[in-house]
Every structure is written in C-alpha cells, then in structure tokens.
Design goal:
- The complex is a heterotrimer of chains A (479), B (114) and C (419).
- Chain A contains 12 helices and 23 strands.
- Chain A has 479 residues and is an alpha+beta fold.
- Chain A has 3 domains: 153 residues, 3-Layer(bba) Sandwich (FAD/NAD(P)-binding domain); 155 residues, D-Amino Acid Oxidase, Chain A, domain 2 (2-Layer Sandwich); 84 residues, Arc Repressor Mutant, subunit A (Orthogonal Bundle).
- In chain A, α1 packs across α8.
- The relative contact order of chain A is 0.16.
- Chain C has 3 domains: 189 residues, 3-Layer(bba) Sandwich (FAD/NAD(P)-binding domain), CATH 3.50.50; 134 residues, FAD/NAD(P)-binding domain (3-Layer(bba) Sandwich); 91 residues, Immunoglobulin-like (Sandwich).
- The chains are: A alpha+beta (479), B alpha+beta (114), C alpha/beta (419).
C-alpha cells in the first residue's frame, strides 16, 4: 500500500497536520518513536498560548503565532481541551526597562497583537502578589494557558477517528526516494508514501538530512521548570513574563489549566537531545529570577521539577517548506517556542501552502472535526453527577485522590482511538498521578486497571518507555 | 565489654554487657534478657508473605509465631516461598509447622476471604 | 442530604479508634468514610511486627493490629462506607463523598474527625537532581507492590533516607532476593528507630551512610542506571570529592511523611509546622466541631500513639456534641522553644481541658543529658530530665492542669542541655 502522506513525528505539529489532512480524502500515516503522541517537546513546555507580541515582525514565528492564537478557542472546543485566555503581563521591575516595555508595545502592534501599557499601580491592581517595586507592565489579553498533553493527544485522536493510521514505538531509520514514492524504513517495518512531512522536533534536522545535506542545525535548548501544587488561587492571575532577551521570553510564572502553578523555564544549550535532567544551580537561578517578579512564590509547595528540550533552529525562525531538491518532502522543522501557540496555524499553512501543491485535496464528506465529548464529573452539579453515576457507577469511584479522577474517566480514555499504553500516558490524559503524592496512592490501582484492560499481568505495565515496567519481578516463583 | 542497642521495643536502649553477662543501660528487664540472648543465641521474628490462590489477594502476610534463630532466616524464606494457600485464610492458621526443625510455626497474619 | 452526629473521614487506625471511643462514650450515630475497599489503612501493607505493645501488650503485625480494630467496628455495628472518597468539607460541616454504589452523597455532620493519615514525600517534592528515569519509587509504593501484590520493583536497590519504611523495605527486599547496596541519610543521625537500624540493616550488612545524600540520578534510555551519593557538611552542602557511585535499578525514597490534609485547603484554618491543622487540647481545629487526629495532624512513630490521640479527638468530639466545649475562659498559644521541632496542640482552652494537659513534640535534632521545660509565661510548670532524646521519637509529656495559673498568653516547650 502506498500512503499519500507519511508524517514523521506525533508531536503537536504532526498531530494537528494529521488532523487537518484527515479532512481530505487522503491515506495518511503518522510514525513516532515514542509510545504516545506528544511525548517529547509537546509534553514538556510552559503550556502557554502566546499572544505573538514578541517574535520579530515579518518572521514565520510572528505570523503563525498570531494566527494560531486566534484559532485556539474553536480548536479547543472541538478537541475538548482546556484553554483559558487569561492574558499575559510582561513586567518591568527596573526603571531602565520601561523603555524596553514601550519598544515591545510597538513590536506587538507591528505583529497585529492587541496590547495595553499599564502603570505600576494598574499592574499591582491586577496582580496583588507582584514585586511592589514594579515599574509598569504590558498586558496582552489574547495570551492563554492550554493543557498541552490533551491538545496533542486529542488532535491525534481526532485524526485517527477520521481515518489516519498511527504507528507508535517505531523509529525512522532511513528515507529514500524510489521513483515517485518515498520508502521509509523504521525499526519495525517499511512504508511507501508519495509525500513525507518531517515534524520530528529535536530530530527534524536529522530526518531532513536523510534525503539531502542540511544547511541548518536544530539544537536542543533545555528549559527547567518547577511545578507547584494547586494549593490556593490567585498567586498570579496572568502569565507573568519578564522582559524578553535574546535567550527567549524568559522565566515566567503562571497558573496552569489544572490550577497548579508553573515556574520556568531556564535556557541552556544541550549537546544531548535526550538529556532531560535537572540540576540545582539552574533551578536555583530559575527560582531567583521568578522571585524577582513574584516574591511570595511558595517553593515549599513544589510537587515536581522537570525539563523539556526546545528544538531551536540555527535559522532563528521556523523552517517550514519544501526540501531543496524535492517538493514531495516537506519540512516542519525547528518548531521551538512559540510552537505550541502556532501549531494550529502551522497545520493550515503546511497543508494549504505545500501539500496542496503536490496532492489534490478533496474534502471528505463525513469528516468530523469534534471529538466525542469527555465527561468531567467535577464540572457537574450534584444531581447531574448522581444521574451519571447511576448510569455508569464507574464515575462514582475515585481512583486518584489528589486529582479526583474517577474510574469512569480512565475507562473512557482506554476506549478511545489513541488509548494510553502506559501509566504516564494515562496520567497525561486524566491527571491520575499528577498531584502532590505523584501517584504514591493511585499508581497500583492504575496498574491494575491497565493490566485488566489489556488482559496482561501487572508486570507488563510500563511507567513510560519500553523496559520501564514497575512490577518488574514476580516473587516466589518456582525456579 | 560489649555495647548493643536493645531492639525489644522501639525505645532502643543502649545496653552495655560485661564479660560476666551483666547488663546495664536497660530501661526494663526485657533489655537484660535481650542482651544475653543476643550475645549467646540471637533470634528474630520473621515476617514475610506466602502465595495465595486468589486473583484478588495474591499474597498473604505471615510471621514466625516465635522468634527464629537468626541463622535460619534465609532457610525459612526458602520454605515460605514454596507454599501456596487456598481460601479462606484466617489469622493464626498454621502455614508451615515447625519450620526448619526449629519448633516454631509460621502462621498467617491476615484474614482473607476472596 | 443526610444527617449524622459524627462523620469520621478515613478508616485507618485513627479513624477506627476514634469511632470506637465515641461509640463507647455513647455517640452511636457514626459514619466512617474510607477510600480503600477495606478498613485499616496503611497497616494493611505493614506486614512487619512491632505494633500494639502499648495497646495490647503484645507485638502484632500491621494486618493483625488492624483486624482487631475492624472486628470491633463490625461487632459494634458502627456504620462505614468503603471505596468512598471524600470530595469536600464545607465550613458548616457538610461532607460530600462519592462512591459507585450510592453516588454523590452530602452528609450534614454535627461533628467531624479527620483521620486521613499522611503521604510520602516523593522525588518531585525533594527535587533530586539528574535524569528522570523509571526505577525511582517511594518506599511505601515498593512495600505495597511487594507485600500485597508480590512484585519486586527492582533487584539492585539503593535507599535514600533512613525513615522507618525505608529500613523495613531494605530487609523485606533483601529477604525476597534483592540486593540492597546502601542507605543514605542527609542528617548525621538516623531518621528511623534504632531497632530498625539493627534488625533491618546491621543484620544484613547493609551500610548506612550518615550525612550523605543523592547528588545525581543517572538513567539510560529512561531507566535508572546509577545513583551518585556524596557527603554533606553541616549546612547540607556537598563536599567535593566524596562522591560514591552505585550501579542500581531502583532508588527507594524514605524521606519523610507529610500530613494528607488537602480536604482542609479551602477552609479558614491555619496550619502548624507539621503541615497539619492547628488544634486545641481536644484535637479540635479552628473550626468548632471539626477534629483531627493521627498522622494527618503530625506524623507518629507508633500506631499505639495514633490510637491514643484518636481517642483524645473522639473524647473532644463527644464533649463538643454534649455542649461541653465552651471555647471560653483562658486561652494559651503553645509554642515550640529552643531545640523543639513542633508541639501539638498549638492552642489550649484551659476551661475545657481535661485534668491532664498532654504535650506531644519532637526535638529538632538529637540531644544528650537535657532537661525538658514546660513554661507558662516565665513560670516553669514542669521540668523533666532525659538522658537522650532524638527527633525520630515523639515525646509525650503530661502535666496536671491544676499547675497552670491561666494568666500568661503563652505556654512554651523547650529543652536545655545540663551543664
């Protein structure tokens, strides 16, 4: 079988491109080396839908960020993803930053982003916990926070529901053109496709180099973060940014869609694209920078630290377009920040400007943009909730205590077209194990549920990647 | 003079024992008894689990009804690892009688009905 | 909405003990809410012995200890709901819980006792540096997998923290065929009980590295491969050149327990240094009629003490239900002074108090040859000599109420080394 399109990478770009393609009569396959969609950069980031005030005007980053931001409300409604337009507030702490703030306001206007310069008093009114020495701020109301885990997973689920094939756990080894088709060899199989889309994140330069010499480099730029428990509301009400520098938008303080707080990221060049380690000096620096904006961050409420790698291109802009020697190979490379915010616009751009040039796109009649709705019991009234539990008692049984996740929600995820294959994949979808005890109480129950569902022994259930089984060795077995 | 920490109870008294087995530093008489026994014939209560023929409760906790000679602990584990109980299990049920010829029984420490 | 005189949240040892005590004192309209499908809480997985020396004058295992209490609960027909998770407590004491067989239930309680225990500090909370591989578990997680399901999480194990669960797991995993390479403790003294150092480590020649902690966790392809430990100075800073590397597949964490009192987050309450709620002499929180006992209040080292405290809370709840907690008269703030980590209770209503005032506390670090002082204002009410005192053992001091004058605002507990 020859696929029309083969996408390398099931991150947020790959998933949204796949979803866009699934609205046409095309045979599309997505291949990813990870065992879940959105498992690398799309999982470990600030989870912010930037307004687009910051990229250099005229760049793809500026254009796609602003467009993407506008697409989020509808997209998240269709995909049942938590998105909240809480706005961002870039703050000047020192006198000499006021000038930079107004420069930024000018840049925002050039990018077509609505912003408002605020006085110190106005900032303090919006953000009571801000550094009292604050000198002023720039409010961008269109910025928002999104659940990045479900955004990617649900986008892929929508693509699969509309006919896309998804192969996880397969690493692409080589890509060669054979006549009119590409032959893509993976660790498990071989595929033929008319068009290849390279959305391979930190490895996008490597995938590109499989077909031609590449004159740019994608380097991992690591960002380390703190996650705080959702212990109280109102620590900050907006995404709080410092003034941007050449290193990026800087260390932010924000609430997340789950009501936690996130503080970070750092910015460090990394030679090792797999390195997701954290270290104390870096996190101490993050803490210091964040405290300068919000002095009262309760770091004793930290429930987790993590790091993510940004695929930073040496070109300083997204690399999107045809390969030099062939227009059937489309790169979506170097998608670093504001990649998440741009991702819906990236998908449109890739399909409308590039795929459409080489394949004829016929709209699918039975395309369904919206997913089957998920039920969130905590959003229901007492009566609605009781009616639900009466119909399906699993929604009455709570598995994760910290995050109040019910068995019903877990079973729903298992019934979906991109089901969770690991404890972590389930955690990304339902938040089971995301709370202060970090799965201390619910992990055994989750393992039992997964083992039962897949009809395997508990020892087969993985925490994350292959080989990460938790109940590794059954004791007392006859030798 | 030998020094050891009493483990009879969580208090953890620091005991001193001279060559004539005179014990000092003990809060209660059990400490003196422990010191002498520990230096002449050390014993430990063994707690472990045994297999149960049940999907719901695949393991049942057990203990040695009395302390076992310390040197028999690993041998006792080998015996314990061979056993499979069928339901129901009651606290005090003898799982292995006279384990390793010590005269001590291994007993169940939990009621399991399913 | 249903009505109950007394709702107890959590059916572990504290919950069952307080229910039984309240029942004994004549309050029979009780409901215990338990998230698991059994009564007994964490004792279910604590299959080692050493429970019940005070309570039953014999050494029991965790499951044996809990079964005596659950039998008494059943024998007295005290009602409880299993697999029932409390979603919230309101200021006016409406408890909302959910299960699969009743749905979402709202109970208006006249009094509540919160006995939800504690949870383990985990890798996220202590912010270990390095990779994020699989193979890092809390000791209690590994204990549950091994004792209840029969699985070892790994075979080459290092343990960070000398808390009792970690020590107990060193022995358990060794007996089940794993190799435990060592235990590192940040402090220059153990966090666990002496008997566990002897029985769980020394018996199996497992080294204990005091003043050491994990400097880095190294993984390969997502799995734990190595832990690097290093010695720390008095300020807990790493001493360069003291690094030791261990090839392991498992790192167990036994680095402390934290009261599990999320349910109180949205109530107008203050919290003490233990991270549990501030309580009075009757284990009553700042909301009248809402009591709390056991590890949700402060972490205990013996279940026997948990049971005792649960009875004090039940006694308080019964007094409250009978209108005998006036919250009037002289009020003391109880403050931890020199050398003291924390004290429970943090408040005393002298008029409401029983004949003995009970102070429970831990020292901040080990002392030898000290006097413990309980002081009312500037006046020493009680002085007590101790040859040795360590943070891993909770101290309980009982003082006659009659010795307090009801004048000063503050009672302080502190220690002084004898010269």
């Amino acid at each position: 079988m020859i696929f029309d399109v083969l996408i390398v990478g099931a991150g947020v770009s790959g998933s949204l491109i796949a979803r866009k393609l699934s609205s046409y009569d095309l045979k599309t396959i997505v291949i990813d080396k990870e065992n879940d969609a959105g498992n690398v950069t799309s999982m470990a980031n600030s989870a912010i839908v930037h307004s687009g005030y910051d990229p250099v005007p005229g760049t793809l980053k500026a254009k796609l960020n602003v467009q993407g931001n506008k697409m989020f409300p509808k997209l998240c409604e269709d995909l049942d993803v938590h998105f909240e337009q809480i706005g961002s507030l870039t703050v000047a702490i020192y006198d000499d930053q006021i000038k930079l703030l107004s420069d930024l306001a000018i840049r925002s206007k050039e990018n077509g982003v609505e912003v408002k310069l605020l006085s110190a008093e106005e900032v303090k009114k919006l953000e009571p916990n801000i550094n009292p020495n604050v000198k002023g701020g720039l409010l961008a109301p269109s910025a928002g926070i999104v659940n990045p885990f479900t955004l990617t997973v649900h986008a892929m689920e929508s693509a699969v529901d509309n006919g896309v094939t998804l192969h996880l756990g397969e690493e692409v080894l080589s890509i060669k053109k054979d006549g009119d088709v590409y032959v893509v060899k993976t660790t498990k199989d071989e595929y033929q496709a008319k068009v290849v889309i390279n959305a391979a994140g930190v490895y996008s330069d490597k995938i590109h180099s499989m077909i031609e010499p590449v004159d740019y480099k994608v380097t991992a730029r690591k960002g380390e973060y703190f996650v705080l428990d959702h212990y109280k509301e109102g620590l900050v009400n907006h995404v709080i940014f410092p003034l941007p520098s050449e290193k990026g938008k800087g260390i932010l303080v924000s609430k997340t869609t789950s009501g936690n707080y996130i503080v970070g990221p750092s910015s460090e060049w990394s030679d090792d694209k797999e390195d997701l380690s954290t270290d104390k000096p870096t996190l101490d620096a993050v803490r210091k920078a964040a405290t300068e904006m919000v002095p009262s961050i309760p770091f004793n409420q930290v429930i987790r630290t993590f790091s993510g790698n940004r695929p930073t291109p040496s070109t300083h802009d997204f690399v999107i377009g045809f390969a030099k020697k062939d227009n059937h190979f489309i790169n979506v490379s170097g998608i670093e920040s504001p990649g998440l915010a741009s991702s819906p616009a990236i998908a449109e751009y890739v399909v409308n400007e590039f795929v459409s040039k080489v394949l004829s796109l016929k709209e699918k009649k039975d395309y369904k943009p919206a997913l089957r709705k998920r039920i969130n019991p905590s959003k229901l009234s007492v009566n609605e909730r009781n009616a639900l539990i009466k119909k399906d008692p699993d929604y009455g049984e709570i598995i994760c205590n910290c995050e109040k996740v019910t068995l019903g929600e877990i079973k729903d995820e298992l019934s979906r077209s991109v089901p969770p294959m690991s404890v972590k994949a389930l955690k990304k979808r339902t938040r089971a194990g995301f709370g202060k005890c970090q799965g201390g109480f619910c992990q055994p129950l989750v393992i039992k549920i997964l083992a039962e569902h897949f009809n395997v022994d508990m020892s087969k259930i993985k925490l994350d990647k292959d080989g990460s089984e938790i109940c590794k060795y059954l004791t007392k077995e006859a030798k | 003079m030998k020094e050891l920490i009493c483990i009879t109870c969580p208090r953890g008294c620091h005991l001193k024992v001279d060559d004539n087995m005179n014990v000092t530093g003990n809060f209660c008489p059990r400490g003196a008894k422990y010191a002498v026994s520990e230096l002449t014939h050390p014993v430990r209560t063994l707690t472990s689990t045994v297999k149960v023929d049940s999907k719901e409760s695949p393991r049942c906790p057990v203990k040695s009804k009395d302390p076992l000679p310390k040197e028999t602990i690993f041998k006792a584990m080998e015996e314990i690892n061979k056993v499979t109980l069928s339901l129901p299990v009651h606290i005090g049920d003898i799982v292995i009688a006279n384990i390793c010829g010590t005269g001590v029984d291994i007993v169940a420490t939990k009621n399991i009905s399913k | 909405m249903i009505n109950k005189k007394l709702v107890i949240i959590g059916g572990g040892s504290a919950g069952m003990a307080s229910a039984l005590e309240a029942y004994k004192q004549g309050v029979t309209d009780i409901l215990i809410l338990e998230k698991n499908d059994y009564l007994g809480g964490i004792l279910n997985q604590c299959i080692h012995n050493g429970f019940g020396l005070h309570e039953f004058n014999e050494e029991l295992t965790g499951p044996e200890f809990m079964s005596r209490f659950s039998k008494a609960v059943n024998d007295n027909h005290i009602s409880y709901r299993l697999q029932s998770n409390v979603l919230g407590i309101s200021k006016d004491k409406v408890v909302t819980y959910s299960n699969s067989y009743e749905g979402l239930v709202e109970v208006k309680a006249e009094a509540i006792i919160l006995t939800t225990g504690c949870y383990e500090r985990n890798a996220g909370a202590i912010q270990i540096a390095g990779d994020r591989p699989s193979g890092v578990y809390t000791a209690g997680q590994a204990q549950l997998y091994l004792n209840c399901y029969g699985y070892l999480v790994g075979k080459k194990v290092f343990i960070l923290g000398s808390g009792d669960i970690g020590l107990i797991m060193a022995r358990r995993m060794t007996l089940e065929g794993a190799k435990v390479l060592g235990v590192a403790e940040l402090n220059p003294y153990s966090a666990g009980l002496n008997r566990n150092i002897v029985q769980c480590l020394q018996d199996f020649n497992i080294p204990l590295y005091l003043s050491h902690t994990v400097k880095e966790v190294k993984g390969k392809e997502g799995h734990l491969e190595k832990v690097v430990i290093a010695k720390v100075d008095e300020k807990f800073a790493f001493i360069p050149g003291t690094e030791v590397e261990f090839d392991v597949d498992t790192l167990l964490l036994s680095v402390g327990l934290i009261p599990n009192c999320d349910l109180l987050n949205n109530l107008p309450l203050s919290f003490s240094k233990t991270r549990g709620p501030v309580v009075s002499q009757d284990m009553e929180t700042e909301i009248e009629g809402l009591f709390s006992a056991g590890n949700v209040l402060h972490v205990h080292d013996l279940v026997d003490y948990v049971v005792e405290e649960a009875r004090e809370a039940a006694n308080g709840a019964v007094k409250y239900l009978n209108g005998k907690l006036s919250h009037k008269g002289h009020i003391y703030d109880v403050k931890p002074g020199n050398g003291i980590g924390y004290v429970v209770p943090q408040k005393i209503y002298l008029e409401d108090a029983n004949d003995k005032l009970v102070f429970k506390f831990r020292v901040a670090h080990p002392f030898k040859d000290i006097n413990i002082f309980i002081k009312e204002g500037d006046n020493v009410v009680k002085k007590l000599f101790k040859p040795a005192i360590i943070p891993s053992e909770m101290e309980i001091v009982r003082v006659d109420k009659a010795l307090f004058k009801g004048e000063a605002k503050e009672i302080s507990v502190y220690v002084e080394e004898r010269k």
